[in-house]
Design brief:
This protein has 266 residues and is α/β, with parallel strands linked by helices. It has a single domain, classed as 3-Layer(aba) Sandwich (UDP-N-acetylmuramoyl-L-alanine:D-glutamate ligase). It has helices spanning 19-29, 57-70, 84-97, 119-129, 140-147, 155-166, 211-224, 229-245; strands spanning 5-13, 33-45, 48-54, 75-78, 102-104, 135-136, 172-175, 184-190, 195-201. α1 (19-29) crosses α7. The radius of gyration is 17 Å and the shape is globular.
Length: 266
Amino acid sequence: MTTPVALTIAGSDSSGGAGMQADLKTFAALSVYGASAVTALTAQNTRGVSAIHPVPPDFVAAQLEAVFADLAVGAVKTGMLGGRATIEAIAVAFKRFAPRFVVIDPVMVATSGDRLLPADAVDALRTKLIPLAAILTPNLPEAAVLLSEPLASSDAAIVSQGRRLLSLGCSHVLIKGGHGHGSESIDYLISANATVPLAGPRFATQNTHGTGCSLSAAIAAGLAKGEDMETAVRNAKAFISAAIASADRFAVGHGRGPVHHFHRYY
């Protein structure tokens, strides 16, 4: 029997709701073995990020070497990457080890509004990593930053931005609609041949810390288990929707609390 393995390359959230901790919780909830390479330590809670300590790029590379040399990694996801040199080190590792599926969550700003990716690293993300991605998962503000365009304000504009993001070299784009308005949150899965709208209810809760991290991790988990891209994305959206719907079972922190990754179990 083969055990599905997914790898997260991300920052650590000391409050446990986002970043590497959210990714590993998601992998576990979806019956996938999780490995990790830490790119940065954060002093963080539900109210915000108070300090960031980047991991040296050569040590990020050493973590990746250790994981890829031993584990049969089925899919990789990236989150908070820290800076240009780290992005370049990860790109070198991907070209060397050629993971089958790379899910890139272009983490730039925390839910609290704190900046997590320096401006000078955005170009490296565009040119070094995104061309290696099976899927890119930006929210609306991240899509606008990656394209140096205004925030999309209509469905047609969102799809148009998604198609322009494809031109950066990734195979699929999932533009997340959580920053939009209305009773439904509509994500768009876009490839060269199709645009698939994925609608879900918008929940009235402030406990949304880690939603983007967890969604991209859930996609990676599905791909590691052998699901095709659309199935992996649909299942991931169902998982994160249920995790958000169950988030108010928690009373964690005094700001934007975490989603409930283990809603199926308790």
